[in-house]
Structures are given as structure tokens and as C-alpha cells.
Amino acid sequence: MTLNSLNVVLFGVILLLAVGFYGLLITRNLIKIVLVLQVLVKAVVIALVLAGKQSGNLGLGQSIAATVIVADTVVAVVALALAVQVRRHTGTLDLSKISTLRG
Amino acid sequence: MIEILYYLLLSLGAAFCAYRAMISRHLLPSALYLACVSALSTVILYMLGAYEVAVIELSVGAGLVTVLLVYALSVVGDDSFDPASIIPKPLAFLLVAAIAVMVGWMAYPLASQPAVNGEVLLADVLWKHRALDVWVQVALIFSGVLGVLGLLSEKVQREEMPKHENQTAVENEAISIQMEQEIPV
């Protein structure tokens, strides 16, 4: 595999995904989880555009990336609103304290 | 060669900012680091030739989402707690390393193939082939706005109160205000 710019971007995408997954595993704050999801989606958006450029269909990659950005923004907005309501009702944002599921 | 160096610096910078956003104890610096990640991602997208998505990412990712995060923090307050993670951090690191190796293994065929030169305009794809998706996106944004308006409303639902025949509308309103003051928020 020769080292070109697309491979370097792919390496960056994998790095961002790894950081996002790590944050998703260690985070218990509701708002920070929304933030971690944003990091993951940014990696996915870059990967979509990269795949479109690699396959010679950059327009399709861009259109799917735009759809992902819109859906992710709506998810972030609703999740933040839910976090605000959870904080108002329970007084905490810690997932382990607000979870009522016990094994 | 200089382009590879730019991509490497941008990718490492984005990953560093993302990591700082994870480990920051306060949420406001985390939101600012996320904006930095978005800005660096925008530069990468621009250099890849995705100009339209770069503009959307910069305005939405670095602008709108950051404003929303800061607004949410102003409402709930910046909790500076850093609770221990549910699973041990070394185990999380090993899991993430395994995931990264698997993703790299799956993406290897894409990276090893030569790039195909093609010219497909975004407008053609968006308005001719994916027109239905555009309308779905419009509906999604509309439903998201409605959901936020419903969730962020601070109105306390009034309980059904018995209305006496002799009470006027002003008296009923006074009783409802009194009940609102008694209900803890």
C-alpha cells in the first residue's frame, strides 16, 4: 500500500473513530455522551466523502454526508433537550444515578 | 508530499482535540474542543474537494451544535464531576484498539485501490437521484424543531380542577396561578 493523501485521511478517520468509541465507553455524563456522538459522526462524514472521492462519485458521497449531518444535528438537539429535562427532574446528569434498570 | 503533511497534521489535530474533549473535567472546554474538531474536519473536507459539505459542517457542526451545547450548559450548569467509568479504562482501551484494527482491516481494500476519476455534481445527485431524501430531511428538521419546542417548554401541566358555577373566569385563573406556585419545579 503506497502512502498517499487518501490513506492518511483514512488513518485520521480511524483515529477519530477510536477516540469516539473510547469516549463512549468511559463517559457517564449525558451531555458529554452527546458530544462524543458528534465526534463519531464527524469521522463518519469524512469517511463518506473519502469513499466518494476514491470511487469517483464525490457528489453521492457529499449528498449522503449532508443527510448524515442533518440527522445528527436533529439527534443532538433532541438529546440535549432530553438531558436538560433529565437534569431538571433528577438533579443529576450521571447515567448510573438516573438509571432505574437493575440487573 | 506537502499535502500528505497537511492531512497528517489536520488528522492528528482533530484526534487530539477530540481526546481533550473526552478527558476535560468541565463541559464548556469540551464543547469548545468539539468546535475545534469540527473546524479541522471542515478543512479536511475542503481539501478533499467536498466544498458544499465543508460549508454545512462548519456552519452546523462548529456553529449551531456549539451554540446548542453552550445553551444547554447554561441551563443545567457546568457539572465538574468526573465519575469513574463503568468498565476499566485499560479494558476500554483494548476494545477500542481491537475495533480500530478491524475497521482498518475492512477499509484496506478501499485504500489499496487506485482512485477513480469521475465528475458527478452534487446538485444532480441531490435533486435528481435523491430528491425524496431531501424532503425527508426537511421533515426531519421540522420534527426536530417541534420536538425541541415541546421538550424545552417549562409549562407545568395544570391539573384538572373542579370549576364551581359561581366562580368567574378571573377567580379560576387566580386559583390556577396559586396551584402553579405550590407545585415544585
Brief digest:
Chain A has one domain: Helix Hairpins, CATH 1.10.287. Chain A is built from four helices and no strands.
Radius of gyration of chain B: 25 Å
Q: How large is the count of helical segments of chain B? A: 7
Unreliable stretches of chain B: none
Q: How would you spell out the order of helices and strands of chain B?
A: HHHHHHH
Query: CATH topology of chain A, what is it called?
Result: Helix Hairpins
Largest sheet of chain A: none
Mean pLDDT of chain B: 80
| Strand residue content of chain A | under 5%
Oligomer: heterodimer
Average pLDDT confidence of chain A is: 86
Gross geometry of chain B: extended
Question: Can you tell me the CATH class of chain A?
Answer: Mainly Alpha
Q: Indicate the percent of residues in helices of chain B.
A: over 70%
* Helical content band of chain A: over 70%
Question: How many alpha or pi helices of chain A?
Answer: 4
Terminal CA distance of chain A: 48 Å
- Structural class by helix and strand composition of chain B: mainly alpha
H/E series of chain A: HHHH
Residue stretches of chain A low in confidence (pLDDT < 50, at least 5 long) are none
